[in-house]
Amino acid sequence: MAISDIASYANLSAADVESFGAELDLVRRDVAESLGARDAAYIRRVIIFQRTLDVVARLLIAGSRSRGGWLAGTFSLAYAKSIENMEIGHNVSHGQWDWMNDPEIHSNTWEWDMVGPSAHWRYSHNYRHHVFSNVLGVDDDLGFGVLRVTRDQPWKRDHLLQPLRNLLLAAVFEWGIARHGFHSEQQRVTTEGEKRAVAREMYAKVRRQIVKDYLLLPALSLRRWRRTLAANATANLLRNLWAYVVIFCGHFPDGVQQFTPESLRAETRAHWYLRQMLGAANFKAGPVLAFSSGHLCYQIEHHLFPDLPSNRYAQISARVRELCGKYDIPYTIGSLPCQYLQTVRTNFRLALPDGGWAALAGRPIRVTP
Fold first, then answer.
1. Among 132, 46, 32, CA closest to 86
2. pTM of the prediction?
3. Per DSSP, what are the bridge partners of residue 334?
4. CA 258 to chain centre
5. Helix or strand or coil: residue 135?
6. pLDDT tops 60 at residue 57
7. Which of 214, 262, 296, 353 is buried deepest, with most CB atoms within 10 A?
8. Listed residue (86, 83, 80, 61) closest to 72, CA to CA
9. Beta strands, E only, 169-225
10. pLDDT tens, 349-367?
11. How far apart (Å, rounded) are the C-alpha atoms in residues 174 and 198?
12. How far apart are CA 3 and CA 203, in angstroms?
């Protein structure tokens, strides 16, 4: 059931909650004050690496005469797109690198390699999702409007199709994000002129992405245009699948809680921290997997401090886990396969009404004492 009183659920007094929040504020302050040249060098190296890998991948795709070369190029391109999406685009758009005052690596100027405009996503994600994380009826990321992810969401007959919807969402994840951001932006603006401007911005970005991936780059490959077209489509698919897995493992495995709108009443910053802790999950990852996921294996730390640089999340995690032990607050973490399989199980269970097949068939449900 969704939580209305977060402090009571966590068995914390009002003083404990505020003390917990003060200690997290100290973590934030310590990290923010220590940011400097090494962090700036990190993100610049990542951008150089990603762009170099992108060029090398495209040369392999267009120039190789073997199937192995095409596969190597395609997977390299998919990895480059994943890094651009999560470790760079997602994190830059959160303002994690705004402190550098570099106009090329700034949340207001970065445009990612996705069909949805990053400006639309910044409102739907940075504000609607991160400020109101997992609050029913407020956070639109709860199921993205197409999936039932908690029994607090009323069951509808079309939820029977949600395993298929889930599969489709994974394959076209960037389009789902674009649609989600577009509708959030349409709800935010008030005049018809503003709504038309939002639509024009959306169509312009979609047009640029389609022309780049499916017309211009294949055309530059001349007689090998089919190889490039197939590689671009495959790389986009693989990037979509990976981004979907990472996001779902951070938001929908067992142990992640949802909240009622009442939980927002008189919410202090400390209560907000506590809601972020309870409403996210991590998966275990070494340095390579962490980098490949945009450091979103540390989803808890990301929700606590979304605008702190991702390369610091491992360091932050040690202090957060220590605080969780001190205040006896759950810290939800598991292996990547385990976390993902839990989301799949939940997806299938919630495709059915409460009570399962018996409820669906209209038969009385027997409860064994």
1. 46
2. 0.94
3. 283
4. 17
5. strand
6. yes
7. 296
8. 61
9. none
10. 999 998 777 667 664 544 4
11. 18
12. 39
